[in-house]
Amino acid sequence: MKLNDTKAVISGGVSGLGFAVAERIIAEGGRVTLLDINDEKGAEAKAALGDRSHYVNTDVRSEDSVEAAVAAGRKFMGGVNAAISCAGVLGAGRVLGREAPMALDYFANVININLVGTFNLSKTAAAAMNENEPNDEGERGVIINTASVAAYEGQIGQAAYSASKSGVVGLTLPMAREFTRFGIRVMSIAPGVFHTPMVDGMPEQVFEALNASVPFPSRLGRPSEFADTVAFVLENAYMNGSTIRVDGAIRLEPK
User: Fold this and answer.
1) Which residues in 233-242 are b (16+ Cβ under 10 Å) and which e?
2) Mean pLDDT of the chain
3) 152 an active-site residue?
4) Backbone angles phi, psi at 190, to 5 degrees
């Protein structure tokens, strides 16, 4: 798939990694539809990206909401041939906290946003892609989901988050195998510690320690580097059914 032909729906697209992906696709001549729940940020993102972008208020946990968003994106862009799931929450908390065990509702909410939401967009976008005309290699679309290095080395306090991201990794190969007959590729990217709005409020000492924890280069990942990986996957038709770590060789310690 050429980036200038890309018509992408991007969950979590108004900030952080999702917005960086949208910027890259727009810069290459493609079109994007941003799915998010922050209308103020959505308006800002659309203003920054221009008239080849569209924003739809979307709750990734809701089947109806995602179906309506993908339909709106399809109408705006003239089709959908890429879906990138970046919506997510950190979900930090110990299973056995000081005052009480983790509330089941809390755990379930992290799973519902990070894993169920990813599945929801994947299957809805795949149904739309299946109606595309295949290219010369038989490809109709590409799905790229965001996992995390915590899927492999979850730290203390990351039980909910790690479970959700492990689920994203686990979805990748079975969906890729199933979608081969439709000409739809499925990949996941597992970023390490990236500089997103979630780290902007950190104390300087904590921020510097986080940078130093990355072997090389000893800094947080740049959202543009995540977007570069998405662009590579979109354009390389042989990338299918696996998860790429983008992490500066970091391996998370127990805590």
Assistant:
1) bbeeeebbbe
2) 96
3) no
4) -110, 95
- Residues 103-142 pLDDT 10s: 999 999 999 999 999 999 999 999 999 999 999 999 999 9
Residues whose CB falls within 8 Å of the CB of residue 100, separated by 6 or more in sequence, listed in order: none
Q: Angle at the Cα of 163 (from 184 to 219), degrees rounded to 5?
A: 85
User: The whole model's pTM is what?
Assistant: 0.96
| b (16+ CB within 10 A) / e for 205-230 | eeeeebeebbeeeeebbebebbbebb
The residue from 55, 106, 152, 161 that is catalytic is 161
Label each residue of the chain as H, E or C.
Answer: CCHHHCEEEEECCCCHHHHHHHHHHHHCCCEEEEEECCHHHHHHHHHHHCCCEEEEECCCCCHHHHHHHHHHHHHHHCCCCEEEECCCCCCCCCCECCCCECCHHHHHHHHHHHHHHHHHHHHHHHHHHCCCCCCCCCCCEEEEEECCHHHCCCCCCCHHHHHHHHHHHHHHHHHHHHHHHHCEEEEEEEECCECCHHHCCCCHHHHHHHHHCCCCCCCCECHHHHHHHHHHHHHCCCCCCCEEEECCCCCCCCC
Please state, in angstroms and rounded to a whole number, the distance separating the CA atoms of residues 61 and 89. Answer: 12
